[in-house]
Structure formats: structure tokens, C-alpha cells
Amino acid sequence: TTTPSASADPAAGAAVKAADRAHVFHSWSAQGLIDPLPIAGAEGSYFWDYDGNRYLDFSSQLVNTNIGHQHPKVVAAIQEQAAKLCTIAPGFAVDVRSEAARLVAERTPGDLDKIFFTNGGAEAVENAVRMARLHTGRAKVLSAYRSYHGATATAINLTGDPRRWPSDTASAGVIHFWGPFLYRSAFHAENEQQECERALAHLEQTIAFEGPQSIAAIILETVPGTAGIMVPPAGYLAGVREICDRFGIVFILDEVMAGFGRTGAWFAADHFGVTPDLLTFAKGVNSGYVPLGGVAISAEIAATFDQRPYPGGLTYSGHPLACASAVATMNAMAEERIVENAAEIGETVIGPALHEIAARHPSVGEVRGMGVFWALDLVKNKETREPLVPYNASGAANAPMAEFAAACKSGGLWPFVNMNRTHVVPACTVTEAEAKEGLAALDQALTAADAHT
Ligand code: PMP
Questions:
Q1: Protein residue closest via CA to atom 1 of ligand 1
Q2: Three-state DSSP string of 304-334
Q3: Is 179 in the pocket of ligand 1 (CB under 6 A)?
Q4: pTM across the whole model
Q5: Does residue 172 share a domain with residue 60?
Q6: What pLDDT digit, counting tens, does each position of 227-272 carry?
Q7: What are the φ and ψ backbone dihedral angles of 232, each rounded to 5 degrees?
Q8: CA–CA separation, 97 and 322 (whole Å)
Q9: Cα of 122 to ligand 1 centre, how many Å?
């Protein structure tokens, strides 16, 4: 691998940026207002630019590089598969696809034993919703405010954050409800148990007024990620499972971000002892080395499509290079105890350090999380819990978070920042030394946020 100092070449970086600006149209961006950082290389928990700056990646890119960058076993598996068979249509039986499906089925909870592969998370959500609608013969889908499910048609409509707004008009059949989140409770609850009971009662009322016979599915992120890493109270997911069973509603858990080690378990659902009917995954299944996602399907829903065709497919469903990288990733995670590492680092290093940091910084209102999946909720005032920046702030209104992010970067830390939150989501392979290095940089950078309290 090229080291950061060996690759320091500002002129090459400038050329990469100029080429990008000429023809690349970027996600979620006003094209004329962005300044993408040219990247020269990456390894493990780090990536670096052409100016010789190395960043400790506390965002895991988009919370997907669970095994870090350039894992040698995964790189080798992709190379070997490329030499053997680069592509084949989804209708054929191929060793590497079957093995990827077997390994996913083995790790997912309960009887989620049939795997439909997609190219990413949004397509997984689209297909899970379609399966639920066809299985039940019903149309409506309930999803939570404070959620993210992807940027394709149904997935963005299901999403409960402002990125939904410009695409909201096609949201026929999508109903939003409030999930549990004690720190900013929609139910004026005072403790986790109240929050849980009231959130379940609210969901039941929503179902009663929408008409249970019209509802195909409830979709939830097991631990909502992008919206703030809100670990649900004990009993909530089991309560939703029971409600779904009572009304014949399909329960979809979206584990695109929370799955494959992120929470210190293979799936976040494992912490809560709940098995959904459909489970969507992507990101950590192969750390994003080749685009891959999918839906793990229960025996009952799979049976719906046993004698009747499933009306959905993708040219690259179960792509050999993606499946080879997934097999190598899942095997490496088991061999190298990567899920266990995520659990241990979270419990013994990151969690305690974040609580200690929160006690010293007036801008840190709450610490939430598990494994390598943590959020700091930044506030103007710890008493009132007023967010450090207004909801969906941009431009000047977002200056405090922009200053905080800049302080992280000048300290060699690449943060994940969304609204008034920063998330601590390093690779599941992060070492104790790396975690401590990043936490020290975070601690420093928070003084920039404190200045706005
Ligand atoms: N669901 C969840 C929970 C996610 O976090 C994401 C991506 N952040 C998606 C779905 C969409 O995945 P993708 O970007 O791969 O389409």
C-alpha cells in the first residue's frame, strides 16, 4: 500500500479534483458549492489525501467499512474471483453466490433463510416492501420519523428525515409514526419504560386509525442510525413484533447500517431477541468493497413465491465479485473476532470515554450507543436540551457544526456529522490505540462546539 508521505503530491491532488469537478455529479449536493477532498489511498482505519494528511476514519465512510479499508483477505478474494468469473446473470447457480447466501442465512436470526441479493440498501428496502405487499395483498407501509431507508422511490418516501421532503409527492401508502427516543420524547415520557409503553400505544393507535387490514408492513431500523443512533428501550421491538403478529402485518427490520458487527453483534436484532419477517442488509456485509445488499426472507414469505413468480430482479443481483467479497468479509470477521472486537471496544473504551467527555463539555447533551455505533447529541444548553443547531440547519445556521467538523479534520479525525449530532462509528476492527487517538481528537474538537453553548 502507498503510505501517506510517499503519496504526498499536491499537484496530482489538484489534477484529481479538477477532473472530478469537470464531470462528476455528486450525491446530495449543490454541484457548484462543493469542494471534494481528493483521496490518495486508505488502509485499515485510515485514509489520506495528496497533501500528506492522514485521517482516522471515525465515520467508516458512510458507516460501511466495518472491516476497515483494503483488508488483504477481501482484496485477494475479489482478485481471485475476477480471474475466475467476473459476471454471470442472476438466473444461474454459482458457487460463490450460494456460499454468500448460506453465510448470510446462517448469521441472520430465526428462519430468515432465503436471500435476495441487491446492489445496496435502498434496493433491499424497495424489494422488502414489494414482498410484504404481495404477501399480504395490502398496500400501506408504516415507518418511523427519524429514520433513513435509502434514496430510491419507496425508500426515500419511507425515510423520516428532511431528505424525503423534495421527493415526498409519490408517498402513496406511506404513513409515518414516532418511534421511541427518550431524550427528545414525542410522548413526554420520563423514563425508558414509559417511553416504550407510550410508543407502543401510539403505534397501536396509528394502526387502528389507518385500518389494520390495509397495512402490509411496518419497517424500522433496529437501531435507527443516520437519525441519531437511538437504541430502543427494552421491550419495544418485541412489542412491535407482537403487534405485527396480531394484525397480520409484515415486520421489516432494516439492518443496512446496524448489521454485520456494527452494534457488537452480527445483527442488532440479536440484542433484543427479535426475529423480523424480512431483514434488509448492505454496507457491512462486505464493507462496501463491491456494491452489495439484500433481503433475508422468512420461510413463510418465501413460500408465497414458491409456485408464483416473484416480480422483481436486477441485472447484477448476486454479482460474483460482490458475493466473493461478502464471503471473504464474513469469514474474516469470524476468524479475526471482529464482531467481538466491536463489542469489547464499545463497552470498555468508547462508551466510557464518551461519557467522561460528555461530563466535561457543555455542548454534549447525551451519549447513546453500543458496539462501534455511538452518537453525541450536541446542545446549546444541557438543561433545555435545545439542539446546538436548528433542525435541518444549513449555511450560516449550521456554522457551529461546520466549525466542529473542521476542528476534527485539522486534528486528523474524519467525523460523521449530521444535524446537531456527531457519530462515533469507526471500523469494527478499530484497535484500542486508534480509538483512544480518535477520542482525544474528538475531545479537542468539542471545544469548538462548546463555544456556541
Ligand atoms: N437503510 C439504512 C438503515 C441506511 O442507513 C441506508 C444508507 N445509509 C440505506 C437503507 C440505504 O442504503 P444505500 O445507500 O446502500 O442504498
A1: 149
A2: HCCCCCCCCCCCCCCCHHHHHHHHHHHHHHH
A3: no
A4: 0.98
A5: no
A6: 999 999 999 999 999 999 999 999 999 999 999 999 999 999 999 9
A7: -70, 150
A8: 9
A9: 6
